[in-house]
Amino acid sequence: MATGQxxxxxxxxxxxxxxxGPQNLGEGQRRAQTEFVLMCVVEKGxxxxxxxxxxxxxxxxxxxxENLLIxxxxxxxxxxxxxxxxxxxxxxxxxxxVCPLARIPLLRDNFTxxxxxxxxxxxxxxxxxxxxxxxxxxxxxxxxQQEAVQNLTIGLTVFAVRRxxxxxxxxFLETAEQHFMVGQCVVYYVFTEGPAAVPRVxxxxxxxxxxxxxxxxxxxxxxxxxxxRALHAALGGWLGRCEARFVxxxxxxxxxxxxxxxxxxxxSVAQLLAWHYRWRRRLLPFERDARSAAALGPGEGDFYYHAxxxxxxxxxxxxxxxxCARGLxxxxxxxxxxxxxxxxxxxxxxxxxxxxxxxSPEFCWSHDVGRRAEILRPQLLWAPKEYALxxx
Length: 392
Known about the structure:
By secondary structure, the chain is of the alpha/beta class. 29% of the residues lie in helices and 14% in strands. The protein is globular and about 60 Å long.
């Protein structure tokens, strides 16, 4: 059930993805978006990509000034013609930085073979700790298929509760059968309070579906946050004893649209959020309430990670879910609730325990973000949000 400051204040339930559409911008979001543009226009960024979204990496002073002038002019024009909502689309003009040449020969793993980070020169293709950021074109799909471990079983967990079960689960499973880890052994783990309502989907060879019952929660916020606790309990019990060696945890209100293969696997995997992947770090919506276990202070945090997709080995996932569940429990005993719930704790955990691989926004994309030249082949697409219908 799987998402922060997104286009609106209210994040929405997990099971779902908490993202809101751009049509209901609140005043706080408008101010934040205005600040984002002003920061892009007036702030001179670092010339190294070592600090995540430090921005402007590799630009000369002249090139920097020219880019800032262009951005300023476009920002003012956009405000005049379309008002503040257009500001959210100006992130496309913010440079992401480049992967240091010294690290390029080191980018390889057991699931993709050699990586080619220079194939996407306009985006960041590695992190300062040496983890690859997987974009279309940076890996060879044929080589990836060859590198895939034979007889490897991959788990895919999805939480489908309340009306999300009826609205989204069938499409999620049907498109997963078409695109998710084709040729691999796959086990779908569906967590729901209504096992009898799980749709019957025709599964291919070596693909199975298991259903686990969860308790129905009263508030949608609790639906969102209980996932970490339920996953941790399952990983320490029946799920940990199952056949899957690697598990991806994905929100149900999405559908697979292109091949989603073993290039997405690693010891620990994090997903960049489509709305914020070009934003500078100081503008990323980390939890800022110092009382919360999810809090990140100024200068802390690497990227803003989307809780709609994360995964890894059984051991890594158990560590991750334990950290998040513990933080959520601590906040609750203090009467606190992180602004973006389990996602805030996820970003904190991945800052402390760096992921081995990052997935580009292509792996979890929303057309509401707008057209982006670097988004070539979205593998997973968000469904339209229908909160009035689904939360009733």
